[in-house]
Amino acid sequence: MDLLPDLPSLRLLEAVARLGSIGAAGRAAGMSQQSASERLRAMEVRAGLVLVQRATTGSSLTPAGRLLVEWSRPLLERADEVEAALLTLRTEHRRELRVHASMTTAEYLLPRWLVRLRRERDTVANLVATNSEAVLEAVREGQADLGFIEGRGDLAGLATQVVGHDRLVLVAEPDDAWVRRRAPLRPAAIAARALTSREPGSGTRRTVEDAFAAAGALPVAPEVELTTTAAVLAAVRAGGPPAFLSERAVRSEIDGGRLVEVATADLDLQRDFTAVWVGGRRPPAGPLRDLLAIAARDR
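Predicted structure:
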């Protein structure tokens, strides 16, 4: 038979000893005198002992009650320490958020979101920029509280929320032969040329591969594979083959005349930016939900 009272009941009994009445102990615990009295009686029934001597002038503990308070004092002190430690962990969790994000999201969207999170919620985020597959792995393994990916991915077991949309465009340096074409390039013609590309596992690479697969074309292997958008841009500007990149990433390059958008046809290059986390469909309260709310306002 389990005789051990629960911690709130032990705290209430200690308060009776310290304050001299059940009513005062109840007020200290945030409950009515009746509720406090009922809790103490339930504890007495469970223990099989009379613990409180009740009187019209106040209440005091019986010898058994005083002994139980003395025995429980180290337990209550330890419980206080554990509760304080848990509160510290919760506070740290509210103020620091571990975020992993695919490169385009990390470079062109998250910086302003994280600035707003710091200003509005006094929350600091630890950001790791990587490709979409690595983001999903980090979230599943608990290395990230929140992840952002581009395009599709293996989302099994994860909660998701679309936070934005994007379109890939084909860009080339101004002297490239494709720039002089009048008609849009079709999938077969693009697939026959080795391009500059992001590495396998990136959301950009997967979106391009899916678009060609849907069009019934199989691209040749890229001439070069690079791990960041900035590196791909630099390679194309330097005279490398054209590349598919986020319209967000290349807009300033196109406007400045450093790159040219090459028209394409019959390729679906639209994609979503998706937030992923472990848990229920509703984001957990705290910095994770705060950051998603900021992202939603920015759509």
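Summary: Residues 7-93 form a domain with the Arc Repressor Mutant, subunit A fold (CATH 1.10.10.10).
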